[in-house]
Amino acid sequence: RPGSRPVHPPEPPERTVMTELTSPAAFPKTSGRRKGYAPRAVDEFLASARAAFEADDTDLTSAEIRAAAFPLVREGYAIDAVDAALARIEDAFAQRERSTAMTRRGARAWVGASRALAQEILDRLSRKPRHRFRRVSPLRFGYRVDEVDLVAGRIARYLESGEGLTIEQVRSVAFRMQLRGYDEAQVDAVLDAVVDVMQSVG
User: Fold this and answer.
1) Which parts of the chain are beta strand (E)?
2) Which are the contacts of 42, defined by CB distance < 8 A and separation ≥ 6?
3) How many beta carbons lie within 10 A of that of residue 121, not counting itself?
4) Beta-bridge partner residues of 177
5) How distant is the alpha carbon of residue 9 from its chain centre?
6) Closest CA to 122 of 144, 152, 164, 147
7) Which of 55, 88, 129, 190, CA to CA, is 20 to 30 A from 49?
8) Could you read off the pLDDT of 137-191 as tens digits, one per residue?
9) Calpha distance 93→15 (Å, rounded)
10) How much is the pLDDT for 97?
């Protein structure tokens, strides 16, 4: 109508998330003797993530965002704040990856692949307690077996019956160490796969 303002479609929520969370002002800094993530390293990574997202560049994936690591320094960015931002950015990338895969492969193929991965995870987590993952050598430290088994049981119940579990709970899980514990890399890989499954079902 004459004199009315043009109506622009709202930005997709994923793009809004990227805009909000890739600004350095989003993160408080540590003080005193506490260390945080090196600001320059974080800023550079987030800038590259935003550029990749806006350009629809598939070279950067949600899995790579999940694996991002930064040096610790005095007066760095607060770790919890950056980790929370990375989790939301990872979700934005994962949602775009899911949409792209469903368009290319079809919803049925995507769902089928997600179910296959979920079943593979469930098969491992349903093994006998204390035998669910590879153990490190007797003179090395690994994740505490009882703690990992406890989390594995909860994830198995989520996969089997939908027992309440959130992506953030899986992301934030931490284990103490013990001699001849579970192999860290193998446990972490399965937890990453669980996050992938949870993201695939939205």
Assistant:
1) 35-37, 72-74, 141-143, 177-179
2) 24, 27, 70, 77, 82
3) 20
4) 143
5) 29
6) 152
7) 190
8) 999 999 999 999 999 999 999 999 888 999 999 999 999 999 999 999 999 999 9
9) 10
10) 85
Using the CB atoms, write b or e for 58-75: b if 16+ within 10 Å: eebebeebbebebeeeee
Cα distance between residue 150 and residue 131, in whole Å: 13
The model's pLDDT over 31-74, given as tens digits with 9 standing for 90+, comes to 988 999 999 999 999 999 999 988 887 788 988 998 899 999 99
Instruction: Write down the pTM of the prediction.
Output: 0.66
pLDDT-based confidence at 15, cuts 50/70/90? low
Query: Any bridge partners for residue 36, and if so which?
Result: 73
Closest by Cα among 184, 175, 124, 181 to 153:
124
Question: Hey, what long-range contacts does 187-190 have (CB within 8 A, 24 or more apart)?
Answer: 187/133, 187/143, 187/148, 190/121, 190/124, 190/125, 190/133
* Helices (H) then strands (E): counts for the chain: 8, 4
Residue with tokens 């590879």: 134
**At a CB cut-off of 8 Å and minimum separation 6, what does 98 contact?**
110, 199, 200, 202
**Burial (Cβ within 10 Å: 0-12, 13-18, ≥19) of residue 89:** buried
Phi, psi of 106 (to 5 degrees): 95, 150
Beta strands in 59-137, from DSSP E residues, in sequence order: 72-74
- 130: alpha, beta or left, given left = phi > 0 and alpha = psi -120 to 50? left
